[in-house]
Amino acid sequence: MKIKLFLTQIVCMGKYLLMAILVSASTFAGFAQVKVKWTYELPSDILWQEVTMLGNLIVSSENQLVGVNTETGATGWSKPEYAGLPWEAFNELPNSPFFTITTSNSLHLLDQLSGNEVFDSYRAGLNTIGDYFLLYNSDAILVAGEGINGEPLMVYVKMSDGSVSWSLNEKFGRIIAANELGNNELLIVTLFNNYKINASSGKVIWKEVNSPESAQADKLGNFGAFLKSAAETLTKDMEIDLRFYWPEGSNVFYLGSQHEEESMSSSREEPVINYTNVYNAFNINDGGLVWDESLEVKGLLSQVTFLDNGILVLPDDGNKTRINLYDYNTREGIWGKKGRGISIKGGIYDYLHAEDGILLVSRTASNNFLNYLDPNSGTITFEKPVKVKGRVIGIVPLSGGILYITSESMNILDQASGTLKWNKSVMTSPQLTGEYNGKIYAFDRKSGTLKVVDMNSETVKELSSKELKFEGKEIPRRLEVMEDGIFIHSDQNVAKFNFDGSLLFQAYYPAPREPGWKRALLYAEAVRGAYIGASSYYMSGAMAAVENDVRQEDAIAGETVSQIGNAYGELGDQASSYASSAFKQANARLKATSSTREFMLIMSKQDKDIQLLKVSKLDGQVGARIDLGKDREPIYAVDDITGQVYYCTGNRTLTSYMVK
Asked: What is the pTM of this model?
């Protein structure tokens, strides 16, 4: 078999060797097979497998559901009662150690690591599930639904043994949120009422309406009850955006919701939808309403921040938004003429506290803008908003300005003058930037070259001069700064630059055309990115891009990735033993991502065979491979943190390869 290597450039520059290698076709027969770590034989055919975000391996076969020890390949736990479980019945719960299994008559909640079942809805007396909430500090699960006879039922189940501590037959209706207040108390927010409940006994400490409208409905007696029931039915399958705010040290909590209303316009055939933010304030001690009326603000529900002298509401009201500071006691507006607030261009979707002001990030239908707010005077300090290209994803305070990066560009804002420091923005994105030794390296998509930003001097300069072009009509997708250079890659192309801008190598490995091959690699990359993103802004931005790629391959996997959040860091403060074990696992995986990996995995097709290639980031060469044959629907999974690949090498055989 022939190997065609086109050597496009060899230049000796002192101790550096500059090589650009373009590989057009190869069987890679001369490269070693990746080392097998273990082989696991099941007594029946494997249906599917999954590596969870915590790194646990779960395998479904025709006669059992199995948790496999990833180090030894031994059976960690087995559940014969879930034999033949289809993929659709399994669902990992993001930011938790649990997954759910849905059967014909029950919902089950299991621990990934031990396989212990912590909840069975049928055993708890529930015929249908409405809502459930994981309460780690209480070591409990709160579940609401209907009992066997159709009666409303809420149960409080201990995670440790699955036993029901207490139950309530209160008709709660749709539960929006459940919050642990400390002092062994729970705050439950429903569509119409708030409840404070003793977590040990289930005793209702107080029950109060959560809006003036709900109070009015209660005064209407049976007709009001009918209206509430109708509203419950109409919103049963709707996503309700209701947000809970409890400022630290305050005895008042707030609920914010979004209302929409249709209106007809004489100039348009379709109705116009108008949005309103609605806020209510409640006393945490007795549940009473603090304000006699709701605070209503035009626009989509967006950002809220609590300042010393009031609540700053930053809505998203399309092309022109009004922001305002509202008095804690009276809900009256403080800023602007007659307290009506101040106007800002575009709807606000992000903000950043910076020195003596607040940077506001807003958008219209076609543009994005930056403004600077002085919260002491309630004024916008810029003469006009600063227009930026792309949606702002991250902002980083510097000594003399604020570096921002969008989905399309990067620049530095001078918040004192309201101007951009560079005449031309770098046309890049978060996943194509990386920070190293006080500098930010960015691939400029417009020029196809590398740029470098000095974070101390806040200047930008061109690092490479020749345009980087990838084969297969691909464009660069990720950038990673390593100790010996800047590594850039797409799915099938790799390239590396020296810190002086010279190209060290470039290589291309043709892609397989069969559907389904990319999903596992993309998902693994996204999980790794989520952990790195817990401590690195740049990788957080890259994570958003990977999420979109995963969604294109698998909508459910993409949704799971989008909820990974802060890599389980919040579980470290929870009391539950399950939360503690999950935190330890997540923390170990977080530490494993702190060092740069010197290879990447690329799926490639050579002749008629599919191969998973271990490609070095040091020289762009294939170090080893996993032969996957001609399998068009492979059952494989990748853990991009441990470097393990799990592949069904037979109907009943699972093989683990260690790619290190």
From this structure: 0.79
